[in-house]
Design brief:
Strand content: 5-15%
Distance between the termini: 37 Å
CATH architecture of one domain: Orthogonal Bundle
Largest sheet: 2 strands, antiparallel
Helix content: 40-55%
CATH topology of one domain: Arc Repressor Mutant, subunit A
Shape: elongated
Radius of gyration: 18 Å
CATH superfamily of one domain: Winged helix-like DNA-binding domain superfamily/Winged helix DNA-binding domain
Structural class: mainly alpha
């Protein structure tokens, strides 16, 4: 199973918003801390805002914060929004399937089971869970936010 970088960046953005709560997080903060593209993060924040996961504040001093309690944001739901259907193999998508074994293939059934198990783990995980070690996370990102003088 491999998720896109888009999903990875979305999770990083939500995680950072949770550990910085109640403060606003700037798109530039995410880009700087995780060494990511600012336009990519802007697109992700916009999509997560439309989906009701982030509250965005425009203008000088603006940024984003979680729009929900972190315990109410289920990682599996975010993955479904950012990834869409998880077509691990071509036969998962009836519109693109060219395999003549559809419906009788044991491999296809097992791949579906594996995908369901993968998503079940993510459905049991919240943003609160992935930020439970908030102090350690803040300690780790502190030097990235405020590099020592002369290293910026």
């Amino acid at each position: 199973m491999k998720l896109t970088s888009y999903t990875n960046y979305a999770m990083r953005s939500l995680q950072l918003a949770a550990i910085k709560a109640p403060d606003l997080v700037r798109v530039d903060d995410v880009a700087k801390i995780h060494n990511l593209s600012r336009p990519h993060i802007m697109k992700i924040v916009h999509e997560l805002g439309k989906a009701g996961y982030l509250e965005t504040v425009r203008g000088r001093g603006g940024g984003f914060r979680l729009a929900r309690d972190p315990a109410d944001i289920i990682v599996g739901d975010v993955v479904r929004i950012t990834e869409g259907p998880l077509d691990v193999v071509e036969c998962f998508n009836p519109e693109k399937n060219t395999c003549p074994l559809i419906g009788i293939c044991i491999l296809s059934r097992k791949m579906q089971e594996a995908t369901a198990a993968f998503m079940a783990v993510l459905d049991d995980l919240t943003i609160a869970d992935i930020t439970a070690n908030r102090g350690q996370l803040l300690d780790r990102i502190a030097p990235l936010e405020f590099p020592p003088m002369g290293k910026a």
